[in-house]
Amino acid sequence: MCKRWILVIGVLFALAAGSAQSAWARDILEKIEESGTVTMAFREGSVPFGFINAAGEWVGFGLDLGEEIRKALETRFGKPIKLVKVPMNPKTRIPLVVNGTVDMGIGSTTITLAREEVVDFSLPYFLTGTRLLVPKDSAITDFPDLAGKRVGMGSGSTANIKGIDRAMEQGVIPEPCQKVLFEEHNKGFLALQQGKIDAYFTDEGILAGMKAKAKRPEDWKIVGRYLTYEPYGLLLPEHQGEWRDFVNETLIRMIKSGRLEEIYNKWFGPDGEVPLPMSVEFKTLLKVLSYPD
């Protein structure tokens, strides 16, 4: 069975368990206005997109984006809007949106055609690419070196899994590597530290976060070309065009005002949690998305 149908079947089970039909039948913006509450799902172990800091606070790039959308809702409705936060991981993020548990999921989620079959996405708000995290003394410098090696990756990161499969099919990785799947990236990094895998594969922004939060960041290096480009979008329920339009308008205004770049620099700038300069491609994407009023 192809992975796309596995994804679809998994979401159908989520629909059976939840009340998606009733959630979709009601306009989300109307629900938010009436209840004074918006519910969003965030990551808890993906630095700096969403994580628990040393003080026990739930923080991150994604949570700051969610706060901006909450404030935009307050402006629209002229009254306080409460943000309810729900934890998600790569396995639960799509079912949480599909079954109506949350109004939106904000994390490091790549927009893919397979996912578009069961959820909706905002415009892309982040652009990265997939690379490898390895020990500093590793002989692995690029993807061809993964031949016969154990490579960790997120179990819910279908785009990453497909990227590695395609690299093996096309001979970029000349001999098959062993894929080792983890529910959370921090569990994968622990396995890398313990020598259970030879490399960890995911988006560069996430790898930079794993490296930055290590006890000795200098013991790790990010290597390899970009195997794939990964545009991130906010997860939204299908059949909610007005909600999607509101979210997209909020993102565009954040881009045009420079607020999105401010939040990026807070987390990825030189003094941020994970120093990672904004790529030329990412800057170009933001310019393209700066639609005129």
Descriptive notes:
The chain has 293 residues and is of the alpha/beta class. The chain has 2 domains: 3-125 and 233-288, Periplasmic binding protein-like II (D-Maltodextrin-Binding Protein, domain 2), CATH 3.40.190; 129-230, D-Maltodextrin-Binding Protein, domain 2. It has 12 helices and 14 strands. Strands 8, 9, 10, 11, 12 and 13 form a 6-stranded mixed sheet that branches. β2 and β3 (50-52) form a beta hairpin. The longest helix has 17 residues, at 61-77. The protein starts with a helix and ends in a 5-residue tail after the last helix. Residues 12-24 have low confidence and may be disordered.
Topology (elements, then pairings):
Elements: H1 3-17, H2 20-25, H3 28-35, E1 37-43, E2 45-46, E3 50-52, E4 58-59, H4 61-77, E5 82-88, H5 93-98, E6 104-106, H6 113-116, E7 120-121, E8 126-135, E9 150-154, H7 158-169, E10 178-182, H8 185-193, E11 199-203, H9 204-212, E12 220-223, E13 229-232, E14 235-236, H10 241-257, H11 259-268, H12 280-288
Parallel strand pairs: 1-5, 1-6, 9-10, 9-11
Antiparallel strand pairs: 2-3, 3-4, 7-14, 8-11, 8-12, 8-13
